Amino acid sequence: MQAKKRYLILLSAGTCLVLLFYFGGVQLPSSGRNRHDRSHNGYRPDQPWPHFSDPLQQFLLWDQPDTEEYNIHISPRQKRDVNTSVYKGKRCRMDSCFDFSACKRNDFKVYVYPQQKGEKISESYQNILSIVEGSRFYTTDPGQACLFILSLDTLDRDSLSPQYVHNLKTKVQNLHLWNNGRNHLIFNLYSGTWPDYTEDLGFDIGQAMLAKASISTEIFRPNFDVSIPLFSKEHPRTGGDRGYLKYNSIPPFRKYMLVFKGKRYLTGIGSDTRNALYHVHNQEDVVLLTTCKHGKDWQKHKDARCEKDNAEYDKYDYREMLHNSTFCLVPRGRRLGSFRFLEALQAACVPVMLSNGWELPFSEIINWNTAAVIGDERLLLQIPSTVRSIHQDKILALRQQTQFLWEAYFSSVEKIVLTTLEIIQDRVLQQESRSTLMWNSHPGGLFALPQYSAHLGDFPFYYATLGIKPYPKFTAVIHAVTPLVSQSQPILKLLVSVAKSQYCAQIIVLWNCDKPLPAKHRWPATSVPVIVIEGENKVMSSRFLPYETIVTDAVLSLDEDTVLSTTEVDFAFTVWQSFPERLVGYPARSHFWDSNKERWGYTSKWTNDYSMVLTGAAIYHRYYHFLYTNFLPASLKGMVDQLANCEDILMNFLVSAVTKLPPIKVTQKKQYKETMMGQVCVNLTNDLFERWHPMTSSRASRWADPDHFAQRQTCMNKFANWFGGMPLVHSQMRLDPVLFKDQVSILRKKYRDIERL
Fold first, then answer.
1. CB atoms within 10 A of CB 157
2. Element (H, E) at 669
3. Could you tell me how far CA 680 lies from the centroid of its own chain?
4. Host H or E run for residue 734
5. Lowest mean pLDDT: which of 285-299, 405-419, 581-595?
6. Strand, coil or helix: what is 311?
7. Is the omega angle on the peptide bond into residue 251 within 30 degrees of 0, that is, cis?
8. Do residues 217 and 358 touch, judged by C-beta distance below 8 A?
9. Is 269 exposed, middle or buried (0-12, 13-18, 19+ CB in 10 A)?
10. How far is residue 739's CA from residue 392's CA, in Å, rounded to a whole number?
């Protein structure tokens, strides 16, 4: 019993002692280091609660040298980034290494340094500079620039390359606008050299942004650098070929499931993955071919598999494999990027990425999970079973997305460069930046300009995705170029017919005549507002300006001498509501390739084939006014204004380039064709509506001038050259009203006036 009491007393005493220690009743002496650490963090023994009035510690500057004290507060990955970085500006971000003030003053403008005498420059880099200088971002005044691009060639920084520019470090530092690289963009395709191929460019880039191919995730600075694809010197400068997917096959399987054909590296970086490909090659639907036969000394390093690999390699045609495979393997080479990436995209062969640590091109804006399969080099043996498990619906979606991305961002050097600049502009003008949907769905970020609207529902391309419809009214814009001298003139009859349409919200008369505006009482009374606007500088392009008075989604563009009934207007607008992203109208024209003259030709012959609907009588979305004004270069619009011709052709080029589709022709009154065939054809207002109409001899001679038609031929080729190819698409479809020409009572037909002569 006594022993039991002693145990209880000892236990109680021990418990009390522990509680005293815990609540601070007894303080143990601490080491000097602990005291230093705790007081450094704001703790003092005589003051258990912190004083919030104490000054906060200063944030570490981005370029401050690494210290042990700073390293206490960063993650292991951050430490590794700091220690292994080849750039001093590794921690640069837009808010720390970019000056936004110049951009806010002058919008987003880009300055290219003048080329220095005697400096060699590669053709690829010259193409990049020319593209920037031809873009709407370019400025010749460095004082207005938001972004600067070097004229010194930085594309190839492999010291063994003949394109390597020596003494670049000194040359860059001597640039008077360099400012430690702030607000500068550096383009690079190749960095490092044998044997390790590091990502060092051989000079200090300071706070400059990188647009770099084969960039690793460790070097890549998110929302600061831009990862671009590796492209060859043969890559098209502008335009580029379309994707090879001509039609969708169901099920979407091809002859091969997975293919690859390329070099195998026997030694050095990048050899491990390609050396292991033979493990999954089955010579049937998985064909992965490599060759050792490259380089000067390949025979010195060849292994036991080389002869067999080389023989197997020569049996297959690469293009045939590429076009007949469902998936294409894209393993890393010496560097992380590979030409196989763009080749697979164009061929609609779903890329299977096998390059650990590669920051995929334009990863900031593109969701690559919708167009590629991201593999792991360490799990190579699982790749065949992985791609076989992908459902055919998913394969079809992946394949379609490869074609969209190829044509939107990768088919030419121009698209790669402009996409890079648009990404940076979105960062600078964040309030006007594009959404993910804009970048990853048709027509892509280059044609969806956020300066037009921040609301997706204001663009014609997203109605179906958002489940909405365009506003059920249109604004008619009548282009007037002749003085109003008689109450029987066609423009007044046209105005009355259009105003009677149940879908007409308002009529705008664009007065591009040299004579003064007519008095208000000269215009007929209508049930809808009629607004008369004097054209800016009286030029042809003014008819496509984004006037604030246009409040509807649809624009009915009309020439002053167009003859349309109210029924025809109603039917055309009804058709447009189902195709709001396209041109819908009546007078159609076509283009053709003249093999004798090796140039594009323009024809107005009546055939079953057309590729243009002229804007003398056409309906389209008002966004195309904004795009015409802000997207097209001043050189093309200046040409149109100088010739007073071709503005209709240019609008067709623009809409077809955006949609990749032809316009839509609707039923035309029979009398138009008969009149044209039975009477002398006189070209009125730019050949927009070829038909007979009484007019003065001076005006008739002006448009009957053969030079007018020759000018349109010239325009076709100038426009095709700027677009990098012919965007117009042929069509043989014409949309007619229900029961059109059917042998039934005319009273059963909704648009009965269209059939009447």
1. 24
2. none
3. 47
4. strand 734-735
5. 285-299
6. helix
7. yes
8. yes
9. middle
10. 40
What distance in Å separates the CA atoms of residue 280 and residue 289, rounded to the nearest whole number?
10
Strand partners, 533: 510
At 41, the pLDDT band (50, 70, 90 cuts) reads very low
- CA angle 318/440/376 to nearest 5° reads 50
- Secondary structure E strands in 292-324: none
Please give the pLDDT value at position 19.
62
CA distances from 43 to 23, 25, 54, 58 (A): 17, 18, 11, 18
Select from 214, 187, 153, 190 the least CA-distant residue to 417.
187
State pLDDT tens for residues 250-299: 778 889 999 999 888 777 777 778 888 888 888 889 999 988 887 676 66
Cα gap 586→319, rounded to integer Å? 43
User: Considering the chain, what is the average pLDDT of its residues?
Assistant: 83
Element (H, E) at 428: helix 413-428
Q: Are 288 and 277 in contact (CB under 8 A)?
A: yes
Residues 614-638 pLDDT 10s: 999 999 999 999 999 999 999 999 9
**Cα atoms in the 13 Å half-sphere on the side-chain side of 156:** 18
- CA dist 566 and 493 (Å) reads 11
CB 321 within 8 A of CB 256: yes
Mean pLDDT of 198-211: 92
Vertex 327 angle, CA 324 and 333, to 5°: 110
| 3-state class (DSSP) for residue 550 | coil
β 554-559/617-621 pair status: antiparallel
The average pLDDT across 51-76 equals 38
DSSP string, 218-245: TT--TTTSEEE----TTS-SSS-PPPS-
Q: Is the dihedral angle over the CA atoms 560, 564, 567, 569 positive or is it negative?
A: negative
* Residue 472 burial class via C-beta count within 10 angstroms: exposed 0-12, middle 13-18, buried 19 and up: middle
Average pLDDT on 110-130 reads: 93
Residue of 107, 648, 736, 742 with catalytic role = 648
Q: Round to whole Å and give the CA distance between 231 and 237.
A: 11
Q: Is 109 left (phi over 0), alpha (psi -120 to 50) or beta?
A: beta
Q: What is the dihedral of CA 615, 618, 622, 624, to 10 degrees?
A: -50
For range 165-178, the mean pLDDT: 92
Asked if residue 341 has pLDDT above 80, the reply is: yes
**How would you write 66-105 as a 3-class SS string?**
CCHHHHCCCCHHHHHHHHHCCCCCCCCCHHHHCCCHHHHH
What Cα–Cα distance (Å) separates residue 446 from each residue in 176, 419, 630? 33, 7, 12
With beta carbons less than 8 A apart as the criterion, state whether 188 and 180 touch: no
Active site residue 309: no
Q: Give the whole-angstrom CA distance, residue 691 versus residue 563.
A: 10
Separation CA 530–CA 542 (nearest Å): 18
Tokens of 20: 């005293």
Q: Which of 323, 341, 133, 330 is nearest to 237 (CA)?
A: 133
Q: Sheet harboring 612-613: ordered strands across?
A: 599-603, 588-594, 612-613
